[in-house]
């Protein structure tokens, strides 16, 4: 091992024995830079191809500008040599006067006969001669006059001198709505054109110049068609050739790079991985003290060699680490055992025997608490102060885990002790708050709802220290009871709380809960919420308290599904059945 670390093995210099310049030249950083240079060359080639593509695009733009100039000249010639506006209005007026049946006769002799007088018009013959001379331009497919009918989304031809497929006045074709709107809403700025694909003509660029009357109304358009299939075909051929060339270059460079990576990166890493696997196998077999990484013959002169040397050093220290790990594991198991005991102690402190008061048929109460961790900060309580008064408590301590559980136990004991002294709910909360706040160094707090129920009369006197609104079932339906909220307990000494009264009748129920119910969250970060909780309660409002809590829990579970529980989930249901014992 000493021979390897010193660089004397096989007479080669270790990475730790190299000069700064040698390390820089052989480092992964240097290799990465060389790779980036290669990538930059390829990127340059790609940019060159992109530039040539843009150049080809500029040629297309030039064709469009030439077509715009041609349509402008043709429009000027048509306007000065003929009364093209009057003829266009006449053709469009005739077209719009046709019935649907006549319009659908397009392409027949009967349809053309409807516009025969337009073809015999002097202006029409002159326009055919004028426009025909412009079709001789090589890039131009057709030069014609047409108008759009916005109601039917069609182009109506007025003059078309194309010798290969003349379209006579009144003949029409369906057009793209967006292209038609672009032409009809032309503001006069820039070149008016539209590129579209049709089954009849393929890809076509139509450039136009509007013909306006004295009022500025568009009467028709002088349109020039450019077929751009030839241009695009040439571009596709060019792109194909460039792509094949680049692929060939990439393939060659890839082979060279892969071979280089295999030699200087993959093979040494695999050697380190094999040594690590051998180490793991020996550990599983119970073998100790073997040398795995120190036997590696890696001399790449970069970070990979440094990694192999570091692993060799680490191997010598692993035994101490494993011993420490065993100690930590034992400590973790001890803590886990203690948390398990704490969980059972906390559960035992809460009322957990049901039915709670089997000898008191006047009422029934049921509660559950599911902590988010091993122990939680939520708690509930219920107990008879005397033969005619039942105390109900629902509380939520800030935080979670062991600190919250300790704070919860102290709060629960104080509330129960002060309640058994015969004090009102507001007095109980006030005294508890002063006691906790006087020595609250951790600045924890607890929200509390506390009520004292008079069994013989059905009167419930309650006070709320920053807790959730209670839910009351009266007249057969659960609804929120928005009571007065005081400050949370533990915030500051001297806080004053207020009592309020609720008269309950036989059959009425009271549902108490912590925010872990309404704030239960699904995988999409949505909250269960108050509305879903009320719906779950009203699913079967006449059932007993046990089933009432089950209905809510089923609703929560169905909503959150597999999402993790982040807060304690605590509920209590109290049902008033009769004022007297049976």
List keywords for this structure.
single chain, about 575 residues, alpha+beta, Phosphatase 2c, domain 1, about 20% strand, flat
Radius of gyration: 45 Å
Mean pLDDT: 83
Main β-sheet: number of strands, strand sense, barrel status? 6 strands, antiparallel
Beta percentage is 15-25%
- CATH-level-2 architecture of the domain at 350-576: 4-Layer Sandwich
Oligomeric state of shown chains: single chain
* Sheet with most strands: strand arrangement: 3-2-1-6-5-4
Q: Which structural class should the secondary elements be placed in?
A: alpha+beta
Give the beta-strand count. Answer: 16
Helicity, in percent? 40-55%
**CATH topology-level fold name of the domain at 350-576:** Phosphatase 2c, domain 1
Q: What is the first-to-last residue Cα distance?
A: 90 Å
CATH class of the domain at 350-576: Alpha Beta
Question: Mind telling me the CATH superfamily name of the domain at 350-576?
Answer: PPM-type phosphatase domain
Number of helices: 16
Tell me, what's the shape?
flat
* Poorly predicted tracts of residues: 1-10
